[in-house]
Amino acid sequence: MKELLKKNVLVVATGCSAHALAKAGFLNSEGTEKYAGEGLKAVLTAIGEAAGLGGPLPPVLHMGSCVDNSRIGDLVTALARYLKVDSARLPVAASAPEPQHEKALSIGTWAVAMGITTHLGVVPPVLGSPEIAKLLTEGLTEVIGGKFYVETDPVKAAEGLIADIRTKRAELGLPN
After folding, report:
1. What Cα–Cα distance (Å) separates residue 15 from each residue in 5, 126, 141, 154?
2. What is the pTM of this model?
3. What is the pLDDT of residues 123-136, one digit of tens each?
4. Are residues 94 and 34 in the same domain?
5. pLDDT tens digit string along 55-64?
6. Is residue 54 part of a domain?
7. Is residue 81 part of a domain?
8. pLDDT score recorded for residue 24
């Protein structure tokens, strides 16, 4: 989380992670001052001030329980429509760094089906077959745009997600 925020990546969260994120100070305005990169801090401060909050929005926006991921899907779909591109082309990524329940894999599969690179911080039991592992981590990108990205090291995971986001930003002609 810290790596993403300091690289100016806006984070939207759902589910069990919210408890840990709140305890770590990511769901309040002070977290923006402490963790956000200068660009993200400026955006969150401008929005917070415009909304009359007297300070920035938190660096991580919480959107409900794990089954509320459809809210994030709605946001991604609305952005894609606004930009007139497929959701797979958007510079967004998903992450389940420490899945707490089996449904995390099904939610991740849904994100991959939307064309979103989806990080898993725990190796899922589906990686036993080399053919299935290659399909899930590489082959789906050609078909639907998304893929699973399995990385257990949190800093390396953030670097991989940031690289994916930067590639998609460049493809859309957006500044990195």
Report:
1. 19, 22, 26, 18
2. 0.83
3. 776 666 787 777 77
4. no
5. 999 999 998 8
6. yes
7. no
8. 95
What is the per-residue pLDDT across 66-120, written as a single tens digit (0 to 9) for each?
A: 778 888 899 999 999 999 999 999 999 988 888 777 787 788 888 989 999 988 8
Mean pLDDT of 26-32: 96
Question: Do 33 and 95 belong to one domain?
Answer: no
CA-to-CA distance for 122 and 92, rounded, in angstroms? 20
Instruction: Report the C-alpha dihedral over residues 22, 27, 29, 33, rounded to 10 degrees.
Output: 80
Q: Do 57 and 135 fall within a single domain?
A: no
Q: Quick one: which of 97, 121, 111, 173 has its CA closest to 144?
A: 111
Number of domain units in the chain: 2
- Please choose, from the candidates 130, 136, 91, the residue with its C-alpha nearest in 3D space to the C-alpha of residue 109: 136
Burial pattern 37-75, b for ≥16 Cβ within 10 A else e, equals eeebbebbbeebeeeeeeebbbbbbbbeebeebeebbee
Do 115 and 172 sit in the same domain of this protein? yes
- 117-120, strands of its sheet edge to edge: 93-96, 117-120, 147-150
92 and 172 fall within a common domain: yes
Which 8-state DSSP code applies to residue 147? E
3-state secondary structure 116-131: CEEEECCCCHHHHCHH
